[in-house]
Give the backbone structure.
Amino acid sequence: MVDDASTDRTSDIVRSILPEDPRMHLIQLKQNGRTYSAKNLILKQYCKGEFYAHQDADDISWPGRFETQLAYLQSDPNTAACGNGIDEFYVSEKDKPGVISRFEAEFNEADGLFHRKNLYEPILPQGLEGFSESYERGCLRICMNGSLLFRSDAVKQIGGFDGRTPIGGDVELLLRLRLFHDLANLQEILYSRRYHQGSLTKSLEYGHHTPVRVKYFNRLFEKLKSLRRLLDSGDTDELQIAAKEDMFTIDCEQSVFHGGGELDESSGSE
């Protein structure tokens, strides 16, 4: 678990539950580097397994999520990442998702929340077909990033996330990943995403349709046009170089707490 220099009681709460499971670890950063920098940190220093997934702080993974996704990836070696259907939930109309879904929201009296299903395309074949058209219509749909299980090597080979941006790095990663691999989305709901006014996508500074986000995606669109030319030309070596990020991670002190509550005083790459 990465505490990205939070200002609440996150680290205290996590440290209190560490003794419950020796597999748990807390990486506590002394400076906020934002989400994509923190994810690169995990990929560079701690991710040793064949598969990689992340769990966003205000979302919920359903039982069986990883088992189901793992079975799919093991059955299809050409697929680099597997998402699934989403249960989008929120308290009131002002929290309503800004993303597109063909399903209508319904109010659930049992939990007092609105719920809406969202399903993404089952297969997104390698390449960038449909990207230009969907981007221009403002309805870019690939996968729900928080729900994905990735092949670790595939993500590392393209240099991880764009760690310098506070927004849009998930879409940027998926578009670069799709230059070399297929992506998939299971049509089964296995992940719940909470929408609320405090989220980044609702932020007046970084949220959907804000100038900062629009500018970032316009730059991304221009970059992908040049990558697409390399893809169409068949220049695989040059495409690998041009599409690779540098796994940027903010340089700051970190403390590592292991399951059982033991403190590792080291910082940096250990």
In short: The CA atoms of residues 61 and 155 lie 21 Å apart. The helical segments are 10-17, 35-45, 65-75, 131-136, 152-157, 169-177, 211-233, 236-242.
